[in-house]
């Protein structure tokens, strides 16, 4: 079996002493250059954004005519919480995932500029100086010592007849746009996470306050029961149950404290600060904020424009399509124009006057003849990767629709549940008050009082959690619709500023700058 290799048919550059062929080669090169510039030929598929048959309205919402577009700009301000607004701004500035996404944008843009250079000629300069000593074989002759100086330029330019470099530039441009969408997607996630953890912190604060308040009330009831037991007005069962109920409620306090601390620590990390940095700012407490209602969800087609992760998947599909053309171009002949000029003299003062000057110029044609199917396989690899990104794009669209549908249903049903729990809690509160009054009058057993107080505590706990769920599902809906940070983001400034990057004495390996 023959080894995998690429054969080349090459037209060598014309030399100065080949006057007859020089004119023909020059004309050939100029003709090829004209063809390349005029044709602008490329191979491989031209990218077109796929079209999907999306529903005209959300299945979980009544169809609106016309549907109101979602209000995504600074959606978190609907909570009307200044501290939350401040924390989100700080997170955008200090979050490390955002810093990573910024660096990826700078990398992608630099790659694009790098790829632009493949469309332009490259020129290199060179210079050398040598001192030579030679001895003649003739007896008695003196050794000859002389200096020689050389300088010159080398130039080359690939004509990109079939658009391989242009496809590479196209892929790099799509890659830079994908990196920008990745930053926007990171901001959507960040804003949603900061808001969610803030809501959870307020939820645990409310649950802590409820547990402490209820435990204090139940402990007073247990104290009263003990006094009644001593007076013969209560039984040992009443005393034991009253004490157990107060103790059970007190046991909830450490659990809520753990959850609250973990939430605040995570919130601090999202902002880019040490875990305990926000404890003082959140210590004052506050109720769980509720958003305005209702929320406009627009139509499913809006996701193609508003969801950064969907746009990211689409840009990655475009990039993979361009790479097919880049791989396909390698299967076609390529032509490069190369040239060089050089001068040499025995002294530097003679380089421009009495020097020996030579030059060469001509095209180089490279034709793939046999490579064991490697180039065709590379194209097949690129096509398979394109199909993967096509499937990923479809999955991103469907996943986005699922997120919205789930959030719409969850928010709507949680609002209904919250209304029922509000009414239920009010009824339990009246029942607890009435049972105490009737117990004091001797109309009901003391166990009825304990049962009413336990039911009230459970109802108030469920009400707080339901209130937080409304806020969480509101956040989820806005994230699902693509709402994120729409303010300016500075991405050109590097996180690490290098100093002393010019020529300088090297330090010993492992030596730190502070040592």
TrEMBL record:
Where is this chain primarily localised? membrane
* Entry keywords, A to Z: Lipoprotein, Membrane, Palmitate, Plasmid, Transmembrane, Transmembrane beta strand
Q: Which cell locations does it reside in?
A: Cell membrane
Membrane topology, from the record: Lipid-anchor
Which intervals of the chain form a coiled coil? none
What's a single GO CC term here? plasma membrane
Q: Does the keyword Glycosyltransferase apply?
A: no
Which residue ranges does the record annotate as region Disordered?
116-145
| Pfam (any one) | OEP
Q: Where is the composition biased (Low complexity)?
A: 125-141
Gene Ontology MF terms in the entry: efflux transmembrane transporter activity
Q: Which InterPro entries has this protein been placed in?
A: MdtP/NodT-like, OMP_efflux
Q: What family does this belong to?
A: Belongs to the outer membrane factor (OMF) (TC 1.B.17) family.
Name the UniProt record assigns to this protein: NodT, RND efflux system, outer membrane lipoprotein
Species in which this protein is naturally found: Sinorhizobium fredii (strain NBRC 101917 / NGR234)
């Amino acid at each position: 079996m023959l080894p995998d290799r690429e054969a080349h048919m090459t037209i060598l550059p014309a030399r100065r002493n080949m006057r007859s062929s020089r004119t023909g080669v020059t004309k050939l090169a100029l003709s090829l250059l004209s063809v390349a510039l005029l044709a602008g030929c490329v191979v491989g598929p031209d990218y077109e954004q796929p079209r999907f048959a999306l529903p005209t309205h959300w299945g979980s919402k009544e169809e609106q005519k016309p549907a109101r577009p979602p209000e995504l700009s600074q959606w978190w301000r609907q909570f009307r919480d200044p501290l939350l607004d401040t924390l989100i701004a700080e997170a955008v500035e200090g979050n490390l995932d955002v810093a990573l996404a910024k660096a990826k944008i700078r990398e992608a843009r630099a790659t694009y500029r790098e790829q632009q250079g493949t469309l332009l000629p490259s020129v290199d300069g060179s210079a050398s100086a040598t001192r030579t000593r030679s001895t003649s074989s003739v007896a008695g002759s003196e050794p000859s010592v002389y200096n020689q100086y050389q300088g010159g330029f080398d130039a080359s330019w690939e004509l990109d007849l079939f658009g391989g470099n242009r496809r590479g530039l196209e892929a790099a441009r799509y890659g830079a746009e994908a990196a920008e969408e990745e930053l926007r997607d990171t901001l959507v996630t960040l804003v949603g996470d900061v808001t969610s953890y803030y809501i959870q912190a307020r939820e645990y604060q409310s649950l802590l306050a409820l547990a402490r308040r209820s435990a204090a009330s139940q402990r007073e009831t247990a104290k009263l029961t003990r006094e009644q037991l001593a007076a013969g007005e209560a039984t040992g069962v009443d005393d034991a149950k009253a004490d157990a109920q107060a103790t059970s409620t007190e046991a909830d306090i450490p659990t809520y404290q753990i959850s609250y601390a973990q939430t605040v620590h995570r919130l601090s990390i999202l902002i880019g600060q040490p875990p305990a940095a926000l404890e003082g700012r959140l210590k004052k407490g506050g109720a769980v904020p509720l958003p305005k209602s209702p929320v406009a969800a627009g139509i499913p087609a809006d996701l193609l424009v508003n969801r950064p992760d969907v746009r990211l998947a689409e840009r990655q599909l475009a990039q993979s399509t361009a790479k097919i053309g880049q791989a396909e171009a390698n299967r076609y002949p390529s032509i490069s124009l190369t040239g060089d000029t050089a001068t040499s003299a025995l002294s530097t003062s003679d380089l421009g006057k009495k020097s020996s000057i030579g030059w060469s110029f001509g095209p180089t044609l490279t034709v793939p003849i046999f490579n064991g199917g490697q180039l065709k396989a590379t194209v097949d690899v690129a096509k398979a990767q394109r199909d993967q990104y096509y499937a990923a794009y479809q999955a991103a669209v469907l996943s986005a629709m699922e997120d919205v549908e789930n959030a719409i249903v969850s928010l709507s049903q949680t609002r209904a549940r919250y209304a029922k729990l509000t009414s239920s809690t009010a009824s339990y509160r009246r029942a607890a008050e009435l049972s105490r009054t009737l117990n004091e009058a001797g109309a009901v057993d003391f166990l009825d009082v304990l049962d009413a107080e336990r039911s009230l505590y459970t109802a108030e706990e469920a009400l707080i959690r339901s209130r937080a769920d409304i806020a969480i599902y509101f956040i989820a809906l806005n994230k699902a619709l693509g709402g994120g940070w729409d303010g300016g983001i500075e991405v050109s400034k590097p996180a690490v500023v290098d100093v002393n990057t010019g020529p300088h004495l090297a330090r010993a390996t492992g030596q730190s700058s502070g040592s």
